[in-house]
Design goal:
- It comes from Cyprinus carpio.
- This is Reverse transcriptase domain-containing protein.
- GO terms for molecular function: 2-oxoglutarate-dependent dioxygenase activity; methyltransferase activity.
- InterPro entries: AlkB_hom8_N, DNA/RNA_pol_sf, RT_dom.
- Strand 13 (about 495-500) and strand 14 (about 505) form a beta hairpin.
- The chain is α+β, with helices and mostly antiparallel strands.
- Among the domains are: about 100-140, no CATH class; about 300-345 and about 395-505, 2-Layer Sandwich (Alpha-Beta Plaits), CATH 3.30.70; about 510-650, no CATH class.
- The protein is globular, with a radius of gyration of 28 Å.
Length: about 650
């Protein structure tokens, strides 16, 4: 079984295109390791290979899967692995057969949908099967990735995603970086050592329903064969870390496009998501945990993405806290710049990232390994049945990889504001600059905007001035007309409202527009709940559907806006809940109850995390039992998250 998994890479990774196989035969380490590996297998046939000596090269590690006969050359190994390719095909067929009932149910007509209820009531089917049936009953369909797929569009998209391959010629910093980093000696011990138990656990945690990568290996295969594959891949992973090289078969990706909006007007309206090797994703998870331990304390506290105990709500609430606290003072206003980057993940320069990682105390061997991971990557775009031509890229981090989000956060970690009256919030590539203006002095704000534009130029990030907008929040009695903001000789458009991290924020800091959109969306989904009720499904299933499909819409970022919502808006929201109650026939939690419980839960997590940027807001009184109440002058500040959270924590 283990050889069957490895056989997939044998068809893609030959001695000519594998960086590890190219360099391994030329080193003395390979010549010395081969006899040791062979002797281990001969002394303990049939046992799990446990090696305490130096790591063996990839071809010898792969050959350890078959103890009776050890391949003596990469070509012989490839021949053996290709012969075992049928095994993985049979295993894949097995898993397809195991889920055949679910697929048949999804494609069945209405008559079989009624049979689905009987099957669910009589047999405790898996949750995934239940939701497959619910989608079939409601006739709910996920929008397709592309409605007009063709070969030319696939090739155009692949070229479009590789358009940042040439670095920014205006960046002196980039021009001084070597295209290929200097190799470190092979004898340098890796900073990270991976044991068999770690590999076994990460294989077992793979989700079976996830799509496989270009190599065709499914997560179910790794999960089932974790015990057999862990000894082999632990050697392969450690050898990769020792050589600071990622095999080319691990770096291949298939790009799946997802529309950013309903109506497509250009290539930029498709979001690229990379399907990569499941084995490589497991490898990345182990490296990710190591990187988080090293870089966690050094990350920008106002970067809220991909960090423990951070959320979208935290980013919005923190920004609103800066704004509302400043507006409580007289003679103040706020300018908010919502920055848009063009294909931010695709613009990362690996050598620049390597320099930044070194400054964050990441070991040089890991830096070299990450550079290898991001360079010489082969990718193609799949649109339905059409596949584009393969393209090689040395720029960017694939969206969909485990390491990419953290690498982008580390890449932008030094993008911060130096002025205390200008706050720079980051949530992955969503960057927001908040200028707290006092007495009309905007010099600090405009200087920070210029510094941001310079930083983007130096780091190959393309600032999209057409989509970058500004919103002014000014509650002064007779505010004067304010001069527009310009970036790189382009005037930034001023807007009255903006959808920030999924929440619509208006310049009057009211939530009418946001509540209108979520009420409309929730009422549309009530149709699906009515369809389910027609099939006499049990109340428990209807409640689960309501919680996942309707309540999730009503409660999105509820800690941000519910406290400041008007009574009429709350009545509109609660009317949707009452309609769902009548359809289901059972009471449901009110939005006020959900808001209160979520605020308490969020506040408790913040008070237990001293590294959280809002931790100082919750100041304990000398008694140690209550928190100091927030000093607020206006109702809009009093009803915001932090004052309400402190009030609830004290009550």
């Amino acid at each position: 079984m283990a050889v069957a998994i490895l056989s997939v890479w044998a068809t893609h990774c030959t001695p000519e295109n594998s960086p590890v196989l190219e360099s391994a035969p030329e080193t003395s380490l390979v010549r010395e390791s081969a006899p040791e590996a062979s002797s281990v297998h001969k002394s303990a046939p049939g046992a799990s290979p446990v090696h305490e000596s130096a790591p063996v090269p990839l071809e010898m590690a792969a050959s350890a899967a078959e103890p009776p006969e050890v391949a003596t050359s990469p070509s012989e190994l490839i021949v053996c692995l290709v012969m075992a390719k049928k095994v993985i095909h049979e295993l894949t067929v097995y898993y397809v057969t195991a889920t055949e009932a679910v697929h048949e149910l999804t494609n069945c007509p209405v008559m079989t949908k009624e049979a689905f209820y009987e099957h669910t009531a009589c047999h405790a089917v898996a949750v995934a099967s239940v939701w497959s049936g619910l989608r079939a009953i409601t006739n709910y369909k996920i929008p397709s990735s592309c409605t007009e797929a063709n070969q030319r569009l696939a090739n155009d998209l692949n070229e479009f995603y590789c358009r940042f391959e040439t670095p920014n010629t205006h960046s002196d910093h980039l021009s001084t970086q070597p295209l290929t980093p200097p190799a470190i000696p092979l004898s340098t011990p890796p900073a990270l050592q991976i044991c068999e138990d770690d590999v076994r656990q990460v294989f077992r945690k793979n989700k079976r329903r996830k799509a496989p990568g270009p190599d065709g290996v499914t997560p179910a295969c790794l999960q089932t064969c974790a015990d057999q594959l862990a000894p082999i891949f632990s050697q392969i992973f450690n050898r990769s870390l020792e050589l600071c090289e990622v095999p080319s078969c691990f770096k291949r990706s298939t790009i799946i496009t997802i529309p950013k909006k309903p109506k497509i007007t250009g290539l930029n309206d498709y979001r690229p998501v990379a399907l990569t090797s499941v084995v490589m994703k497991s490898f990345e998870k182990l490296v990710l945990a190591y990187l988080k331990d090293i870089t966690g304390p050094l990350l920008d506290p106002l970067q809220f993405a991909y960090r423990a105990n951070r959320s979208v709500d935290d980013a919005i609430n923190m920004g609103l806290h800066f704004i509302l606290q400043h507006l409580d003072k007289t003679g103040t206003y706020v300018r908010i710049l919502f920055v848009d980057f063009s294909s931010a993940f695709n613009t990362i320069i690996p050598t620049v990232l390597q320099t930044k990682l070194t400054q964050l105390s990441v070991p040089s061997s890991i830096c070299q390994w990450i550079t290898s991971f991001l360079t010489d990557r082969q990718q193609l775009v799949r649109l339905g049945k059409f596949m584009s031509n393969s393209c090689s890229t040395n720029t960017g981090a694939p969206q969909g990889c485990v390491l990419s989000p953290l690498l982008f956060s580390l890449y932008t970690n030094d993008c911060t504001s130096k002025d205390p009256f200008v706050k720079l919030l980051k949530f992955a590539d969503d960057t927001t600059l908040i200028g707290l203006i006092q007495d009309g002095d905007e010099s600090a704000y405009r200087q920070e905007v210029e510094q941001l534009a310079v930083w983007c130029s130096l780091n190959n990030l393309e600032l999209n001035t057409l989509k970058t907008v500004e919103m002014i929040v000014d509650f002064r009695r007779n505010p004067p007309a304010l001069p527009p903001l310009t970036i790189m000789n382009s005037t930034v458009a001023a807007v009255e409202s903006f959808r920030f991290l999924g929440t619509t924020i208006s310049q009057d800091l009211k939530w009418d527009n946001h509540i209108d959109s979520i009420v409309k969306k929730a009422q549309q989904r009530l149709y699906f709940l009515r369809q389910l009720r027609k099939f006499n499904l049990p109340q428990e299933l209807l409640k689960q559907f309501y919680s996942a499909v309707i309540e999730s819409v009503l409660c999105t970022s509820i800690t941000v806006w519910f406290g400041s919502a008007t009574k009429s808006d709350i009545r509109r929201l609660q009317r949707t809940v009452r309609t769902a109650e009548r359809i289901i026939g059972t009471p449901l939690p009110t939005l006020q109850e959900l808001y209160t419980s979520r605020v308490r839960k969020r506040a408790q997590k913040i008070t237990l995390d001293p590294s959280h940027p809002s931790y100082p807001i919750f100041e304990l009184l000398p008694s140690g039992r209550r928190f100091r109440a927030a000093n607020t002058r206006t109702v809009r500040h009093k009803n915001s998250f932090f004052p309400q959270a402190i009030y609830l924590m004290n009550s």
